[in-house]
Amino acid sequence: MPSTEDIFDGEFLTEVDPVKSGPVEGPEYRPQSIAEIDVPRTVLDDLALKTLYFSGTLSVLELARNMRLSYELANELFLYMRAHQFCQVTGMVENITQFAVTSQGRARATEVLTHSQYTGPAPVSFQSYVTQTRKQSVRHVEVHAAEVERAFAHLVVEPRLLRQFGTALNSGAPIFLHGPAGVGKTTVAETLSRVVSEGNIWMPYAVEVDGQIITVYDPAVHKRMAQSEPSSRDERWVLCRRPAVIVGGELTYEMMELQFNPISKYYVSPVQMKANNGVLIIDDFGRQRIRPDALFNRWIVPLDRRIDFLTLMGGKTIEIPFEMLVVFASNVDPNQLMDAAFLRRIQTKIKIGAVTDEQFREIFRRVCIEHDVAYDPEIPDALINHIRNALKLDLRPCYPKDIVSQVCWAARYEDKKPHMDTEALQRAIEAYFPS
Fold this sequence. Notes:
Layout: E1 5-9, E2 12-16, H1 41-55, E3 57-59, H2 60-67, H3 71-83, E4 87-93, E5 96-101, H4 103-113, E6 124-125, H5 126-135, H6 145-151, H7 159-171, E7 175-178, H8 185-196, E8 200-204, E9 206-209, E10 212-215, E11 237-241, E12 244-247, E13 259-260, E14 267-268, H9 271-274, E15 279-282, H10 292-305, E16 307-311, E17 317-321, E18 325-330, H11 334-337, H12 340-345, E19 348-351, H13 357-370, E20 374-375, H14 379-390, H15 398-413, E21 419-420, H16 422-432
Parallel strand pairs: 6-9, 7-18, 7-19, 10-14, 12-15, 15-18, 20-21
Antiparallel strand pairs: 1-2, 3-5, 4-5, 8-11, 9-10, 13-14, 16-17
Helix pairs in contact: 1-3, 1-4, 2-3, 13-15, 15-16
């Protein structure tokens, strides 16, 4: 049953029915006419004219490909431009009309470009985006023990933690990973995202709101599964793996808001919108350029109600889904970062600490195999003894990889095959641990 989303318009709250704007059947169905599409006719007319303006000449088929529309719909747009003398027919190639922009078309395109310079795939309606995002919520994902064990097979993790990870993933609620530096919190967070990302979702290239364009699909973030896309699909949507967006110390308040380019005059979606239906990892939480309390104040409603509010130029506020798994990773105790109200909203808190001697040896063995480094089985024990007794430190999972890397770098400098012996270990220890 379709849900109703609230959108702030000035100071008045109005209700918008996500499906009332047209007979759209979802990303699997390609609209065949203007009457079947879910965005205003003027948006498509302007986009078609801008596409022609920048190309100079086009065929109806090329127009369809550029705008990710059906041939029939592109032909309607061509007929509109010809009727208004924005283009003229230049010929036919294999029964496909070729046309070029006219001086009148250039003048009109120049006027349209002052409002928005967006060209590319036609957008989907905001209502369609909301409906599809709700349908694909990460809360609908079921995670079982076998999937978690398979995802974490490359790591040495005790069964107790695996059970906590699986339970947390099934909750769909925010997760807080905490523990000292070097225990693998970031690696765990990234692996958790891979468990969730085994499924596919539909992601639009762009969304239209009141004639404004917000780009959503980002090839740097979203992994497209083109081979699984049905041939009859609405090509304005892209089939992707559930996304995993990672932000660290570079996170700013502006990155959580719509980013409007005053030159191109369209919006780029914020990090949480790109992460919708997937995982958003806030790494090194507490070290961002935005204070922890300011970030939580910004997301206290989204984390609790799974809705977020974004503001367009001019002051109009839109309500978007906040349908993602949020994972915080920090080496600061959560009680020092947030008050009781925030702690309640982060329902799962998992502490990741030091490893046992046996786990440390297994991690060391795997790292040496990965880097093709031969070693004496007594070497890990020597390293454990030095860390525990000489340095008075706990055993952290990062130490084997960091020490082996030191040996490999030294071997590369000396132009020889890396080998982990007592001398190599001592040199690595001197280089890695502060004296």
